[in-house]
Design a protein that fits this description.
The protein is an all-alpha fold. It is 69% helix and 0% strand.
């Protein structure tokens, strides 16, 4: 049987995944919430 706890201890993330994560976190992305907030603000003016 697989010991998942032991497998997780051996896990090492791929370098490219770490780079992608940092690039995503360091980028200011507009999402649907931001767009809706802007629409409501424009409507209220």
């Amino acid at each position: 049987m697989i010991d998942f706890e032991e497998e997780l201890k051996q896990f090492e993330p791929i370098k490219e995944v770490e780079e992608a994560e940092s690039a995503i976190h360091n980028t200011d992305l507009t999402d649907l919430t931001d767009i809706l907030r802007e629409m409501v603000e424009k409507k209220d003016k």
